[in-house]
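The following record pairs a protein chain with its ligand, adenosine-5'-diphosphate.
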Amino acid sequence: MTAMLSVAGVSKSFGGVRANHNISLQVPEGKIIGLIGPNGSGKTTLFSSIVGFHPIDGGSIRFQGKEISRLTVPQIARRGLIRTFQQTRIYSKMTCVQNMLISMPLKGAGLLGFFESQQSRGHRRAEELLEFVGLHSKRHLLAGDLSFGQQKLLEFAMALMNRPRMLMLDEPTAGINPTLINGLIDRLKRANSEFGITLFVIEHNMRVIMNLAEHIYCLAHGQLLAEGPPEAIQSDQRVIDAYLGAH
Ligand code: ADP
Ligand code: MG
């Protein structure tokens, strides 16, 4: 099986803090892969390195066979690799539809793209995707008036506007109430099965990641501790110890 994303020996330090050390992992095309680990284990740093948010100290990152570790965030996004953040990044004083439009065309980015796309296909796609995440009836509300869970759904829909080949989600269910969590899991699975988007998901909620991912990588202290199918990871003593040790 060909890996859509291949991370090989990636390291990243911030001053004296070794956030990632010699990490290697693969995300095969069409799959949903999980990334877990206690707080501070380096999950978000790895995502930031992959999408070009900061330079890495060493190693290689290949997406669809091409080295991307020296590319910028927009260059990588244009190749179809998009991430969402642990904290939502929406414009609270704009409506849901406006947020969708402004997040859209990476080519004509910014305000010009926003005005150009307003009457056009972009608008239709925004409406379709808001429908997909269950926010269509709220499309003209200010994003800041949505619940936190709904804002996460909006952010997910915004990421889909860029037609990603692969979406990397950083703790998509954090802070969401249990009813919306199930809806979000369902939407993530449908984005994978219906739109063919490969998913790489950081998740703190064990129940969620066990339900979602078919293969899970676990980080601890910036290094890869374990990997395997959900059942094996759940009962892996090293993983259990890492989580217990973190609390
Ligand atoms: P996780 O997402 O698993 O909770 P992070 O990747 O956010 O972990 O953090 C890993 C380590 O790197 C932590 O010790 C954190 O304090 C440190 N770190 C992350 N980002 C920065 C940064 N921009 N500057 C300095 N230290 C950072
Ligand atoms: Mg994090």
